[in-house]
């Protein structure tokens, strides 16, 4: 066994206070993503509140406490978010933090080229292996990059972090300080219970999924419902950015086996994972699961190398031309851009690929149609109309690829809630007349 790395590790093993004292006002910090966010390091950093001003904490999807986004930290810490979660949403919406719209695959480039500053990397990892490599655990996406780019890299070494297979290792020589602290990593509760609307959407989407398809989908009620409808499929594969407990029944049943994948055959490829402790135990040292950097998993060209790629993404609103709003409600930011367009374009370029947008037909207990005649002024478009091939609600599947504006509108009205169809026709007719267009 090589002992040199052990000496180096011991030399760099310090308390959190010793490591974090090197952070100064005005620094930009990027943390490990999602469930891998180093909770202990963040909490210890927040104790320095009165010593620091205008320290940016930059992160993606937040599933944790996000105490740095609370009003009491204003002026000391500024949360810059790629993708809002429930605990930092108010911070961004109220102007105490900043939203940074960017495709998931492009984040590493922006960091590498300095468009997104990274003075400090706060990461979390499993203890070193016998060769002196720490494992990034449940979040691979851009962890190694921020460790390379930062002036200061501090790693929370946590024995409770599962070790993921794939491109997930960093040598101890690449990290400035190690802080040993074991704690439960963030968990995402499993989705239980029945949702009749989501289940109908899942049934409709399942008709688009053939045996041997490779799937990408997010997390939530609709993806969970889709997976429940795939029990009669064979030899499915997965190439995605994230997955959770909802895949396990299909893996254990042998339905997801990757046997027919044309890229990374037999492997489930993702860039991060999150779920319950039982899920973390499942992925720990599981060679079927391969975590890769996000500029691999979400690269359009890589995605397209998976034949029969079915990319399923959600929306908050779709207009009758097919424009998709997924990250805001009106002009108010709600979530983030994420990898939606990465995967829709990858599926579009895949042999026999299918890009799919899924959403319930209504919101607010049926009072509002999620399919609208035209977007309100100021509403950001997440996915352009020309990138949308299929839109699915509980009322059916609208196939938009190769369709004119009037044909798209007709198809989308057909899957809107029946209570809103005539109103949508009238509003779109008025919209077209006002724009000098011909209504179908």
CATH architecture call of the largest domain:
3-Layer(aba) Sandwich
Distance between the termini: 74 Å
Helix content: 25-40%
Largest sheet: 8 strands, mixed
Give the secondary structure arrangement, pairings included.
Blueprint: H1 4-12, H2 16-20, E1 28-31, H3 39-46, E2 55-59, E3 77-81, H4 89-93, E4 98-99, H5 107-112, E5 120-125, E6 133-135, H6 143-149, E7 152-157, E8 169-171, E9 177-180, H7 196-206, E10 214-217, H8 221-228, E11 237-239, E12 242-243, H9 248-252, E13 268-270, E14 272-273, H10 277-283, E15 289-291, H11 294-297, H12 300-304, E16 309-314, E17 317-319, E18 324-325, E19 328-329, E20 332-333, H13 340-349, E21 354-358, E22 362-363, E23 368-369, E24 371-372, E25 390-393, E26 396-399, H14 405-415, H15 421-434
Parallel strand pairs: 1-2, 1-5, 2-3, 3-4, 5-7, 7-9, 10-11, 10-16, 11-13, 12-14, 13-15, 16-21, 17-24, 21-25
Antiparallel strand pairs: 6-8, 17-18, 19-20, 22-23, 25-26
Helix pairs in contact: 7-8
List keywords for this structure.
about 450 residues, alpha/beta, Glutaconate Coenzyme A-transferase, seven-stranded parallel β-sheet, 26 strands
């Amino acid at each position: 066994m090589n002992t040199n790395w052990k000496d180096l590790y011991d030399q760099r093993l310090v308390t959190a206070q010793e490591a974090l004292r090197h952070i100064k006002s005005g620094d930009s910090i990027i943390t490990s993503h999602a469930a891998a966010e180093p909770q202990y390091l963040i909490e210890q950093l927040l104790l320095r509140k009165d010593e620091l001003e205008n320290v940016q904490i930059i992160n993606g999807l937040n599933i944790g406490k996000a105490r740095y986004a609370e009003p009491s930290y204003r002026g000391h810490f500024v949360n810059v978010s790629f993708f809002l979660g429930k605990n930092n949403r108010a911070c961004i919406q109220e102007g105490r933090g900043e939203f940074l719209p960017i495709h998931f695959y492009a984040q590493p480039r922006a960091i590498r080229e300095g468009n997104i500053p990274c003075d400090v990397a706060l990461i979390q990892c499993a203890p070193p292996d016998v060769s002196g490599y720490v494992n990034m655990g449940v979040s691979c996406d851009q962890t190694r990059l921020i460790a390379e780019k930062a002036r200061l890299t501090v790693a929370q070494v946590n024995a409770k972090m599962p070790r993921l297979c794939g491109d997930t290792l960093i040598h101890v020589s690449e990290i400035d300080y190690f802080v040993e602290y074991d704690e439960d990593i963030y968990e995402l509760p499993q989705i239980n219970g029945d949702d009749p609307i989501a289940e109908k959407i899942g049934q409709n989407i399942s008709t688009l999924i053939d045996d041997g398809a490779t799937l990408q989908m997010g997390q939530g009620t609709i993806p969970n419902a889709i997976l429940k409808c795939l029990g009669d499929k064979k030899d499915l594969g997965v190439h995605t950015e994230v997955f959770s407990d909802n895949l396990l029944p299909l893996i254990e049943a042998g339905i997801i086996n990757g046997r027919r994948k044309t890229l990374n055959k037999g492997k489930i490829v993702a860039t991060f994972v999150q779920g319950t402790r039982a899920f973390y135990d499942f992925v720990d040292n599981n060679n079927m699961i391969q975590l890769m950097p996000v500029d691999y998993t979400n690269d359009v060209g890589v995605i397209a190398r998976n034949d029969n790629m079915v990319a399923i993404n959600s929306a908050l609103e779709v207009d009758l031309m097919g424009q998709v709003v997924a990250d805001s409600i009106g002009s108010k930011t709600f979530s983030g851009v994420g990898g939606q367009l990465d995967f829709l374009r990858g599926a579009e370029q895949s042999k026999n690929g299918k890009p799919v947008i899924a959403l319930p037909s209504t919101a607010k207990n049926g009072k509002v149609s999620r399919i609208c005649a035209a977007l309100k002024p100021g509403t950001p478009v997440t996915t352009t109309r020309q990138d949308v091939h299929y839109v699915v609600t509980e009322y059916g599947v609208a196939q938009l690829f190769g369709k004119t504006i009037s044909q798209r509108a007709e198809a989308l009205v057909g899957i809107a809630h029946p209570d809103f169809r005539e109103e949508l026709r009238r509003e779109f007719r008025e919209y077209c007349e006002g724009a000098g267009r011909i209504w179908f």
